[in-house]
Structures are given as C-alpha cells and as structure tokens.
Design goal:
The chain has ten helices and no strands. By secondary structure, it is mostly helical. It has a single domain, classed as Orthogonal Bundle (MetI-like fold).
Length: 256
C-alpha cells in the first residue's frame, strides 16, 4: 500500500511539473528578472526565460550526459579490467600501467587540454571524463576479478555453460553497481563545473552549469537565478549517494 501511494504521488508531481514546462529558449525581456510567481515558479532570468523550465530541462540534459559518460566508463573498465584479471600475464601488466597513467591525469586538466587541442564541445568533455574516470575502475575491477574468480560460484560457473566474459558480466558486474551509482553524482558535478567555466556545453543550452554561470552576475539582484539550479544540482548528488547506500544495504556489497 505504501508503495502504491508513493507511486501515485510521484506520477502526480511529474504530471504537474510536465504541465508547467515552457519553452526554455523563449525570450521575453518584459519579464526579465521577475521573482517567484504562479506563472514562473522559479522566477525568470536576465532574458525573461522561465527559470523553472530551464532548470528541469537542465537536470535532464546534465543527467543524460552523465549517464553516457558513466556507460563509457563502465564498458571500458569492464573490458580492460576484466581482461587484466581474467587473462593475466603481460596483458595484465600493460593494462595496469595504462590504468595508472589514466588515474594520474585530473579530469579538469584533461578537459582543458582536449578543448585546446580539438574543440570546445561536449564530446571533448565526455572523452576527457571517460578517460580520467576509467583508470581507478580498471584497477578496481582487475582486483575484484582476481578475488572473485577464486570463489566457488565462479569456479563452478563453466559447469552451467558460463564462460569468461559471461561470468564477468553476470557475477562481477552486480558488485559494482553501487560504486558506479555513487560516481554518477561526481560526474554530474564535473560536467556542470566545466560548463560553469565555459568548457563543453555552451549557452543558451539549458544545462545546470551554464544556468549557474548566467546567474552568478545577478546573485545580489536576483538570487533565485543562482540558488535554484544549485539546490537541484546538490539534491541530485545527494540522491545518488542515498541510492548507492540503499543498494549496498540491500545487496550486502562491501568494498575493501
């Protein structure tokens, strides 16, 4: 019963939010920097655009990019880390050295380098975040594979027709879900932080970082332009941490 009530509340809130969304690019200078009202729940920005719509679209935009980056990190980490742990030998040594190199490069610096060498676009930011974020997971998955592959349920997996990478995905990946969920919030902050610095996503695209960048100049005149995107960004990060904690509690995953 409790879950049904929660589902009804979620659907109701989502419907209300959807019905109140406006065009996030629509400029109305007659309504610039208006405060909170029934027409504009979060007020308007310096161009008269509805801030509520821009923040909601920005959340979806930021989360979509963060999820794509996370998927890239997962695929690369599973492929290289799993190969290092399962195959071993020279391949293990080579992949470990590559992972150490990836760990030593901060994502911010790599994004700046990529933006200078290639182009200042979201694709260069995504590539930088994937490369810098994969190193620690490659090492972690390698060590996890080395530990788990000696467990009985993995040793007996071939008797059920489960081999190599099938075993990797079905027996090792569940142990990493909580860890990847935790880093989703970190990736989101990195994307928004780089957008705030003018790297990657550019205005007028409604992304949380670009909205914060637009609002900082009007903090003392219209603080809602800066506060609401910050609250939403913080809320999403806290939510990912709580989801990760729930997964740990439910699955009993423990990270050494």
């Amino acid at each position: 019963m409790k879950r049904i009530v929660q589902l009804i509340c979620f659907i109701s809130v989502s419907l209300v939010v959807f019905l109140n969304l406006k065009n996030p690019y629509l400029i109305d200078k007659e309504c610039r920097l208006q405060g909170i009202s029934w027409q504009h729940w979060f007020g308007t920005d310096y161009l008269g655009r509805d801030l509520f719509s821009r923040v909601i679209y920005g959340c979806f935009y930021s989360l979509s990019i963060a999820l794509l980056v996370l998927i890239g990190i997962v695929l690369i980490s599973l492929l290289l880390g799993g190969s290092a742990g399962l195959i071993g030998g020279v391949i293990d040594s080579f992949i470990t050295i590559v992972a150490d190199m990836m760990i030593s490069i901060p994502s911010m610096i790599l994004a700046l380098v990529f933006a200078g060498l290639f182009s200042n676009s979201i694709f260069t930011v995504m590539a930088a975040l994937i490369i810098s974020g994969s190193g620690k997971y490659i090492r972690y998955i390698r060590n996890l594979v080395l530990n788990i592959k000696t467990e009985e349920f993995v040793l007996l997996a071939p008797l059920r027709g489960s081999f190599t990478f099938h075993t990797l995905f079905y027996h090792i990946l569940p142990n990493l879900v909580a860890l990847f969920t935790t880093d989703l919030g970190k990736i989101l902050i990195s994307i928004s932080g780089l957008s705030f610095l003018g790297i990657g996503i550019q205005p007028p695209t409604p992304e949380l970082g670009t909205i914060l960048f637009d609002g900082k100049a009007y903090f003392f005149v219209a603080p809602w332009v800066f506060i609401f995107p910050g609250i939403l960004l913080s809320g999403i990060v806290i939510l990912t941490q709580r989801i990760s904690k729930k997964i740990n509690q439910k699955w009993g995953v423990v990270y050494d």
